[in-house]
Amino acid sequence: MTKPHSVHITRFAKKQLKRLPRHIREAALAWAMSVKLDGLQKVRRLPGYQDEPLKGDRQGQRSVRLSRSYRLIYEETDSGQTVTVVVVEVNKHEY
Asked: Do β-strands 83-92 and 62-65 pair in parallel, antiparallel, or remain unpaired?
């Protein structure tokens, strides 16, 4: 049995989501709902999201692809009974 997951979107990320295109907002919310329902480990295995760990200043964070250009950045904490996923930022990825 997997641990229950909760998803928290920071105030900063909520402000960013309001300014982004509707399809990006919907993709971010769909990802969050998938994590709540299926668990983070299962959602990480889905190839469309391309979940990957970040390096450098963002070590300890992970990114998920919402579209070709936009990324959702999150952190995961495990309190023993539940896993909390904190959405830190949603931004346009610079290539």
From this structure: unpaired
